[in-house]
Design a protein that fits this description.
alpha/beta; two-stranded parallel ribbon; 5 helices; 5 strands
Length: 133
């Protein structure tokens, strides 16, 4: 299975209307790649937190689930007092990985255990991380 490209994600964000708005101006593309790959393998992720039709926590999961054509689980959440809203099509895609190799490995270990696979199935995700350079 191939990893999703940055161009595919950007095109998806620009071409679609989303039920919930973003509350952060950037997404981390390597995190998007990892979550999307894992969703395609059948790994389930926690619900996203939503307040006043805005994603409070779970921006990467939200987009990945929609990219994969999956249902997005929602937890109602209290709205912060000063909430910024961003259009998904205007979100900046950060190519730098926000997670360390160690953190990525911990996520991979946990996710592999949840579905009974060998953690080696995620080797492509570590090799593709800019932090692995």
């Amino acid at each position: 299975m191939e990893l999703i490209s940055s161009a595919e994600v950007k095109a998806f964000l620009k071409a679609n209307v989303f039920e919930y708005t973003a509350t952060q101006p950037k997404l981390c593309f390597p995190i998007i790649q990892r979550i999307h790959y894992k969703i395609k393998l059948g790994i389930d992720f926690e619900n996203i937190n939503v307040a006043d039709l805005s994603v409070i926590n779970g921006h990467h999961r939200y987009i990945c689930l929609l990219l994969a054509g999956k249902t997005v689980g929602i937890n109602p959440w209290a709205s912060p007092s000063n909430i910024a809203q961003y259009k998904w099509g205007d979100i900046e895609m950060d190519e730098h990985d926000w997670e360390s190799i160690y953190t990525i490995g911990q996520h991979n270990k946990k996710d592999a255990q949840r579905i009974g696979l060998n953690v080696d199935i995620f080797d492509i995700l570590i090799k593709s991380s800019p932090n692995n350079a």
